[in-house]
User: What shape does this take?
Amino acid sequence: MTIGELASRIGVTTRTIRWYEQQGLLNGRERERYQPRRYDAEALHRTRLIRRARMLGLSLQEIKPLVDAHQQDPTERKVIEESIRVLSVSLAKMEQKIRDATETHRMLRHEIERLTTLLREKPAVEGGTIKEGEGDGW
Assistant: This one.
């Protein structure tokens, strides 16, 4: 199949396929003089692997070991083992980001409540400013 056919079957652009090639994730068959490069079923499978990994949020750097594993063991056992390893690391990073975001969310809510309470407790101020020593806003 041509690069256009491969891209169409995967749902990406030909530019994306070329980018994968430049990054060493994908190789088409060597083209003959004045002929377009051809891609086989292996290229289709590998491109699907790359696409699925990208959809899961993996970077091309994280995907490279999966592609290498696929090249070493076409039975896919090594790909599955490497996928579990890479995805587990990615999941742990995501879980940490969620914990961090949850803590930031909690702190923001607390600060809004604190400032709202402070505002309710403060009398109207002269000239639109709080006099020195009258509060601990920002």
Remarks:
- The two ends are 63 Å apart (CA to CA).
- The chain has five helices and no strands.
- Residues 12 and 90 are 23 Å apart (CA to CA).
- The mean pLDDT is 85.
